[in-house]
Specification:
By secondary structure, the protein is of the alpha+beta class. It has a domain at about 25-55 and about 90-135 and about 145-215. The chain has helices at about 1-40, 150-165, 165-170, 170-190, 210-215; strands at about 45-60, 65-70, 70-75, 85-100, 105-110, 115, 120-130, 135-140, 195-200, 215. The longest helix is centred in the first third of the chain and has 40 residues, at about 1-40. The protein is elongated and about 80 Å long. It starts with a helix and ends in a 9-residue tail after the last strand. Mean pLDDT is about 75; it is low at about 1-30 and about 215-224. InterPro entries: DUF4230. This is DUF4230 domain-containing protein.
Length: about 220
């Protein structure tokens, strides 16, 4: 009876020690995670990639005559009514990651492995320049020159085409890789093996996502 009593006490103490050990381990995990979160939040807005894109914007505006003749519709291009323009456009794009909202939900730990999910990247147009000396216009005598408003509109269309191609440019992947160059050293200092560290976005972004990732002239939208 006494032996059984001692056994029960030892078992209870062992379980209590194990529970305390698990609590200590869990607390250590939380402390490590909080330490990482605090360090990452100090990065605030981290600019991770920059691209210079050169594009020739080409526009063709032929003069057309439309109407009906003998109950038949016609649409004829007038040979002497052409006008064309070529606009050399240089656009600077920068990608950044805003870590101000980074928290424990962005960090997943599983044993020795840690996965950090980055906030959605943003791509901002920091400058858009036209080489006015290289702008070429061909305007027929029967037509007027392009107006400044038309040239500005063509330039904006060129920018839009560049922005739509961002996923193919590789700037988002560069942003992820450069963010990893900043975060991996932080994690290795916390004791993680670099081979067990995964830095990723929450999804692979496509052209359809770009309107919600872009910033231009102070306009921003939140990606859902």
């Amino acid at each position: 009876m006494k032996t059984t009593f001692y056994f029960v006490i030892v078992l209870c103490l062992s379980l209590l020690s194990a529970c305390r050990g698990e609590e200590t381990k869990a607390e250590a995990v939380r402390v490590d995670t909080l330490s990482l979160v605090m360090q990452v939040k100090e990065c605030a807005r981290l600019y991770t990639a920059e691209y210079e894109v050169h594009k020739l914007v080409l526009k063709d505006d032929p003069l057309r005559v439309k109407g009906n003749l003998f109950q038949r519709a016609f649409d004829v291009k007038v040979p002497i009514g052409e006008r064309k323009v070529m606009i050399p456009l240089d656009v600077t794009l920068k990608a950044y990651i805003d870590f101000t909202g980074f928290d424990e939900k962005n960090v997943l730990r599983s044993g020795d492995r840690i996965v950090v999910t980055l906030p959605d990247p943003r791509v901002v147009v920091t400058s858009s320049r036209i080489n006015h000396d290289e702008v070429k216009q061909f305007v027929s005598l029967t037509r007027s020159d392009y107006t400044s408003a038309e040239l500005t509109d063509f330039t904006r269309q060129g920018e839009d085409e560049i922005l739509a191609s961002v996923p193919q440019l590789g700037i988002l992947e560069m942003a992820r890789e450069n963010a990893a160059h900043v975060l991996v050293p932080m994690l290795t200092r916390l004791g993680y093996d670099e081979r067990n560290i995964v830095i990723s976005f929450r999804k692979d972004f496509t052209t359809a996502d770009m309107p919600l990732l872009l910033e231009r002239e102070g306009r921003t939208e939140k990606l859902k």
